[in-house]
Amino acid sequence: xxxxxxxxxxxxxxxxxxxxxxxxxxxxxxxxxxxxxxxxxxxxxxxxxxxxxxxxxxxxxxxxxxxxxxxxxxxxxxxxxxxxxxxxxxxxxxxxxxxxxxxxxxxxxxxxxxxxxxxxxxxxxxxxxxxxxxxxxxxxxxxxxxxxxxxxxxxxxxxxxxxxxxxxxxxxxxxxxxxxxxxxxxxxxxxxxxxxxxxxxxxxxxxxxxxx
Length: 212
Prior knowledge:
The chain is built from 9 helices and 8 strands. By secondary structure, it is α/β, with parallel strands linked by helices.
């Protein structure tokens, strides 16, 4: 299964803002959107997830649901992303469709090893830099990313997350991380999705170029 190299993590303080931003991201060429809307009832989240599924399906964009694996199954999203405090991926796997992907959040080599044992499809390694005052996890930066990818030597895709800008992409890819998840930088300017896609895909074209 190929995991998209660019994940847009949805933003918006209201359901309307979330939908508007998802629509804009899909129009701008996002290949994968993760619906992330905290502190609302399951009822509101389900309604939002259904709307997000309609938009993403129209654009043939993949949709990942944050935390709510039962809702991910109900709306037939492409998968679910589980934070450290969410349900264990092994339990979620029993409930979702076999074709749905499961991603998990990690901050250390041990976190990653635990997720690999639970057979997640990708790992989101964060934070790359400090953005959230509530996040007490150590900031990893390029050195942290490099240390973790070298220790793991895993085929499972690792996606960097946490305040990443277009300037960071080249360095991040050089650490062995395979893609990036971006929130604020894209919400500020959806046209930047094209730049991110070009930078991320340049890495695979460069590899191909050397084989001739």
